[in-house]
């Protein structure tokens, strides 16, 4: 029973982690760099959703949509004006530039909203107990939202012309360009969607806890771990990686004290990279 | 009689001017007191750091305006980010670039434990609010004092309070921090003496979005009361998860984990009945009232009071020592903070007494500020509060 509860907790945590992890891996697939600015975009999304929810009184789903749109917009703009210019200088420069960008954006949020913690206007509900297993209605909703978003994204990539163009650029940028796909447009789109997902993930995390300007920074290491374990660049891999990290961290409590939980995520990275350097599902985008 | 030449008159006038100006020159040339304020403006301590900063600045402003100090006070502020690595970098900058002789304001115990060696190695004095026992046990050679009660004073007082509420089986769930184990040991000793026990103790990691599994672990031994030993971001998550899990036991937190600003972010039913404890400012003392007036506030908390005391003690110690170095602060601080001298309650009052040639004993806003040989205060009061409908209500002062 204890193992079942831990696995359930891990699935819940992993699913929320999967949303920003998909964003991180999508950017890597198309633009070939690790965008650590994801952390501040999670924060921007969480705060955009907070304003929609508490200032404008919107319910949760429209607030989540606001979080997606606002952080997506910031993602597009930051790529257009900052990161795009750095990409010519290579992977390392762009990744380091994204760290600088994330610190700047995080402080931008801090400047506007201050440092204190804030909470969404959301009634807190007691857990459901089913067959002796506890599960929170909020987490079930988060799970449902995350599953729907991931399904929509998969449908977008598989069924639409733009989605196919994105996959083409991810698979072979040169060939895609010969076929007449505009890689700049794809880069903008991927920045928008990926950072939108980051913002959504930031708000989903905040729904369960509280938010402050560090909400993204606190989560970025687990998100990074999930993307690497699943195979950096693979979108289904990000989902698998997030579940492995989520469940792994929980199951570690059977034999480790909770103080070492994060170490499990990084042990998973070491293990996977040693045995399978491309990650569980490899680097194929889709 | 020899006639005075124009040159002689000018020479004499210049000499007289120089002689008259001499004391002022000495005063103007006196080494400035360079203060490094290293406090959390961001991170888990971001709620307390900015208020402590204002309190210190207010004291220095008052001293500057009074003109009684005779030295310039140069303040450099750095954010320790409630993060030991960032704090050490900032401390090195304060010491090596800004040449400060005292660093004040570190909050988290892990941060102070990291910064303290940098300070004593460079003979820089440090004043802190961190309470974990190991901090004053470090080989700091006297370069560290703290106005916060240590884990022994806090753990023992909290244990007695919790036991007085009828707790017999205490469960502790708290963050990985230097105070985690010492606090548990003192709580255990008190509970045992009162016929109870600590039945479970779980230390968790910071920055997690849920602590459901940790709560399951602490509840396995069926405690009848919970002691939450964390900082604000994680304690909020624990409180929410406890509510969701329908666990309605009595709960006690450190006051810094659930300040009013934090309570405002969570539904009132989640925090209902939570008890908090904090080292209390000496609310009946004259220093406390002066600190409130200086900041234009009706009341101040223990951290603001302690910050007021560091700034006042630094100024008074330098005035007494006649030197603005870390070594002078280390050697002289106890000559103004305790002993049989005239009791003074503000820095300006103390400066005037020192100028009049009196010995002084500074009685602070946070308490008497009497330090033992390792830099701990000898005792203090504790103020207990209870949360009702999302608001903190005063319970008692012990």
Order of helices and strands of chain B: HEHEHEHEHEHEHEHEHEHHEHHHEHEEE
Mean pLDDT of chain B: 90
Regarding quaternary structure, what we see is heterodimer
Work out the largest interface and the residue count of each chain.
A-B, 39 and 38 residues
What helical percentage do the residues of chain A reach?
A: over 70%
Radius of gyration of chain B: 24 Å
Termini Cα gap of chain A? 36 Å
Tell me the layout of helices and strands.
The complex is a heterodimer of chains A (286) and B (398).
Chain A: H1 2-31, H2 38-55, H3 60-87, H4 91-113, E1 128-130, E2 133-135, H5 137-159, H6 161-171, H7 173-178, H8 183-208, H9 215-230, H10 235-251, H11 261-275
Antiparallel strand pairs in A: 1-2
Helix pairs in contact in A: 1-5, 1-6, 1-8, 1-9, 1-10, 2-3, 2-4, 2-8, 2-9, 3-4, 3-8, 5-6, 5-8, 6-8, 9-10, 9-11, 10-11
Chain B: H1 6-29, E1 33-39, H2 49-66, E2 73-79, H3 84-96, E3 102-106, H4 109-121, E4 125-128, H5 133-137, E5 144-146, H6 151-164, E6 169-175, H7 180-193, E7 197-204, H8 212-219, E8 225-229, H9 232-244, E9 250-254, H10 260-263, H11 268-271, E10 275-279, H12 286-295, H13 302-321, H14 326-337, E11 342-344, H15 347-355, E12 360-362, E13 382-388, E14 391-397
Parallel strand pairs in B: 1-2, 1-3, 3-4, 4-5, 6-7, 6-8, 8-9, 9-10, 11-12
Antiparallel strand pairs in B: 10-13, 13-14
Describe what this molecule looks like in 3D.
The complex is a heterodimer of chains A (286) and B (398). Chain A is mainly alpha-helical and 286 residues long. Chain A has 11 helices and 2 strands; from the N terminus they run H-H-H-H-E-E-H-H-H-H-H-H-H. Chain A has a domain at 20-213. Helix content of chain A is 74%, strand content 2%. In chain A, strands 1-2 form a two-stranded antiparallel ribbon. In chain A, a hairpin with a 2-residue loop joins strand 1 (128-130) and strand 2. In chain A, helix 2 (38-55) packs across helix 9 (215-230). Chain B has 398 residues and is α/β, with parallel strands linked by helices. Chain B folds into 2 domains: 31-149 and 283-362, Rossmann fold; 151-280 and 382-397, Rossmann fold, CATH 3.40.50.2300. Chain B has helices spanning 6-29, 49-66, 84-96, 109-121, 133-137, 151-164, 180-193, 212-219, 232-244, 260-263, 268-271, 286-295, 302-321, 326-337, 347-355, and strands at 33-39, 73-79, 102-106, 125-128, 144-146, 169-175, 197-204, 225-229, 250-254, 275-279, 342-344, 360-362, 382-388, 391-397. Chain B has a 7-stranded mixed sheet with strand order 7-6-8-9-10-13-14, sandwiched between helices. In chain B, helix 4 links the parallel strand 3 (102-106) and strand 4 (125-128). In chain B, helix 3 runs parallel beside helix 4 (109-121), helix 6 (151-164) packs across helix 7 (180-193) and helix 13 packs parallel to helix 15 (347-355). The longest helix of chain B is centred in the first third of the chain and has 24 residues, at 6-29. Chain A binds chain B through residues 2, 5-6, 9, 12-13, 16, 110, 115-119, 122-127, 134, 136, 138, 205, 208-210, 212-214, 218-219, 250, 253, 257-262, and chain B through 41-43, 46-47, 50, 176, 202-205, 207-214, 216-217, 232-233, 236-237, 240, 243-246, 261-262, 264-267, 269-270.
């Amino acid at each position: 029973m204890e193992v079942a509860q831990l696995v359930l907790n891990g699935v819940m945590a992993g699913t929320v982690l999967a949303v920003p992890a998909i964003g991180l891996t999508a950017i890597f697939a198309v633009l070939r760099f690790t965008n650590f600015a994801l952390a501040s975009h999670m924060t921007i999304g969480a705060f955009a959703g907070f304003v929609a929810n508490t200032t404008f009184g919107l319910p949760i789903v429209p607030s989540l949509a606001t979080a997606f749109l606002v952080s997506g917009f910031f993602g597009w703009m930051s790529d257009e004006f900052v990161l795009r210019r750095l990409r010519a200088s290579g992977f390392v420069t762009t990744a380091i530039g994204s760290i600088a960008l994330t610190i700047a954006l995080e402080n931008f949020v801090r400047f506007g909203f201050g440092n204190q913690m804030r909470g969404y206007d959301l009634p807190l509900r007691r857990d459901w107990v089913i067959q002796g297993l506890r599960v929170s209605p909020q987490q079930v909703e988060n799970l449902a939202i995350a599953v729907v978003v991931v399904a929509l994204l998969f449908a977008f990539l598989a069924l639409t012309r733009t989605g196919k163009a994105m996959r083409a650029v991810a698979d072979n940028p040169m060939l895609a360009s010969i076929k007449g796909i505009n890689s700049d447009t794809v880069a903008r789109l991927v920045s928008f969607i990926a950072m939108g997902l980051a913002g959504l993930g930031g708000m989903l995390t905040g729904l369960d806890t509280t938010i402050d300007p560090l909400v993204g920074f606190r989560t970025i290491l687990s998100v990074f771990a999930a993307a690497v374990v699943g195979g950096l660049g693979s979108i289904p891999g990000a989902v698998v990686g997030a579940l492995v990290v989520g469940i792994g961290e929980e199951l570690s409590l059977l034999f480790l004290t909770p103080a070492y939980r994060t170490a499990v995520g990084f042990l998973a990275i070491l293990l996977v990279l040693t045995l399978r350097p491309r990650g569980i599902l490899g680097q194929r985008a889709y | 009689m020899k006639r005075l030449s124009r040159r002689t008159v000018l020479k004499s006038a210049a000499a007289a001017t120089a002689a008259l100006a001499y004391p002022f020159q000495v005063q103007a040339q006196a080494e400035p007191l360079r203060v490094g304020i290293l406090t959390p403006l961001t991170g888990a301590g971001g709620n307390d750091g900015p208020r402590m900063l204002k309190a210190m600045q207010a004291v220095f402003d008052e001293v500057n305006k009074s003109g009684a100090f005779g030295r310039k006070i140069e303040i450099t502020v750095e954010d320790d980010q409630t993060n030991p690595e960032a704090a050490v970098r900032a401390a090195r900058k304060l010491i090596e670039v800004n040449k400060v002789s005292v660093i004040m304001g570190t909050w988290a115990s892990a941060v102070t434990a990291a910064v303290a060696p940098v300070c004593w190695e460079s003979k820089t004095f440090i004043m802190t609010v961190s309470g974990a026992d190991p901090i004053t046990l470090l080989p700091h050679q006297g370069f560290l004092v703290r106005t916060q009660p240590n884990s022994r004073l806090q753990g023992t007082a909290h244990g007695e309070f919790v036991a007085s509420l009828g707790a017999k089986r205490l469960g502790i769930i708290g963050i990985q921090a230097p105070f985690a184990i010492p606090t548990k040991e003192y709580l255990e000793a008190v509970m045992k003496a009162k016929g109870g026990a600590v039945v479970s103790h779980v230390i968790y990691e910071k920055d997690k979005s849920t602590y459901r599994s940790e709560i399951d672990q602490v509840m396995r031994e069926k405690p009848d009361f919970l002691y939450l030993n964390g900082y604000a971001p994680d304690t909020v998550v624990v409180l929410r998860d406890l509510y969701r899990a329908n666990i309605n036991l009595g709960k006690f937190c450190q006051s810094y984990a659930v300040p009013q600003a934090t309570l405002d972010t969570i539904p009132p039913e989640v925090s209902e009945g939570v008890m908090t404890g904090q080292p209390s400012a000496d609310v009946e003392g004259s220093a406390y009232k002066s600190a409130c007036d200086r900041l234009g506030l009706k009341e101040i908390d223990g951290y603001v009071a302690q910050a007021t005391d560091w700034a006042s003690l630094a100024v008074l110690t330098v005035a007494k020592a006649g030197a603005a170095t870390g070594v002078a602060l280390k050697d002289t601080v106890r000559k103004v903070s305790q002993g049989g001298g005239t009791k003074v309650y503000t820095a300006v009052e103390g400066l005037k007494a020192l100028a009049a040639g009196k010995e002084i004993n500074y009685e602070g806003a946070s308490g008497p500020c009497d330090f033992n040989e390792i830099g701990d205060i000898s005792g203090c009061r504790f103020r207990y509060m209870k949360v009702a409908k999302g608001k903190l209500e005063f319970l008692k002062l012990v």
